[in-house]
Amino acid sequence: MQGLQVQLRSASPIRLAAEFDCGAGELVALVGPSGSGKTSMLRAIAGLWTPADLQGQIRVAGETWLDTAAGVQLSPQQRRAGLVFQQYALFPHMTAHANVALAAGPSWTDADVQALLGRLGLAALAARRPSQLSGGQQQRVALARALVRVMPTPLAASDSSPSRLSGVLLLDEPFSAVDAPTRQTLYRELAALRQKVSVPMVLVTHDLAEARRLADRVVIVDAGQTLQTGAPASVFASPRNARVAELVGIQNHFEGRFFKDQPGWGRLRWTDAGQPERHLDLPVADKNKIDEDTPVTWVMNGEEVDVLADGDLPSLQEPGHTRLRCQLLEVLSLGEISLCTLRPEALPSQTITLNLTSRLLQRLQVVSGSWVQLQIAPGALHIMPVRTR
Questions:
Q1: Sign of the C-alpha dihedral, residues 316, 318, 322, 328?
Q2: I want to staple 104 with a disulfide (CB 3.0 to 4.6 A). Which of 148, 194, 243, 353 is the partner?
Q3: Of the candidates 221, 134, 218, 141, which has an alpha carbon nearest to the alpha carbon of residue 179?
Q4: Is 63 helix (H, G, I), strand (E, B) or coil?
Q5: For each successive 10 residues of the chain (389 residues), what is the average pLDDT?
Q6: Nearest to residue 305, comparing CAs of 326, 336, 334, 329?
């Protein structure tokens, strides 16, 4: 593989059980709560975090950076890892140009460094020190400094095809300290950069929206362990287990039982905790991974739920979809989006949370206390077996 491959194990001072990869030209986001080990993984790749009991392998573009079984451990200086720190970590007594030039290889001239700063909109600011730059400008300087670490030679201005580089670009929450307009600008610059260079990029973020917007794949991290890897839409809609569902912020998480039905289809029985005799059966796809009458937890993806007026005719229901009559218990306006809590008529002890646009609520002419119909697609439901210890 011409990208990054990581397999790491450690018991102290931070527990680590990480395994993921990142292809050349791919951006992978490490997502998880604070203290979950995301930054430690970046530092281990760069060679800046090497606890005594660290075990595993790190390979980049076919080159072994770490192989504890074979006794290989390159120093940080030997690894072409460009690391963008959350707080920039620029040398305060040096100009922007000098900060970048310090990290550049011997093939880089001052003119090459100046050209790179120009591509990032910093040409006129090259002589300024960090204290004379805005947060967004400092972030661009930090990005330029990281880039020269992974570029053995400067990019040719006339080269329109992505240049395959031999290192890896590591981004530790690089957009968290800038304002929203600057963040949008930096997003665009990162996207433009990916068209010019083919290098593995690993982004640490706790912002789920940012991960969905920027990443080709996400790696869900918790307590130093990588729990699930996949495309953002797939992971957020189909978490592997209840913990992943919690970490990706899925609001509608319930319990039930799974029953097999006709080939390819099953029934998810949603029970009412307050009245066990009451239940609601929802059709779901049967992938033959869960046995008959198995306790499950399940999540509902609100993006695949349509909200209709209560008076809509049953004939509007699509095949395989579930129609569920609900009462709006609470409508909290958050600008263009309203956070809505709904109570199913068939299971009054349960609640469903949906983010609905103000335009939709106005079109349906509903307020708190009104009744609506939810039309739930089979793909909106994802079931997971209950883990037993």
A1: negative
A2: 148
A3: 134
A4: strand
A5: 89 88 94 91 93 94 94 92 86 95 88 88 92 87 88 60 71 82 81 82 91 94 94 88 86 89 87 77 86 90 89 62 91 90 92 92 92 89 76
A6: 326
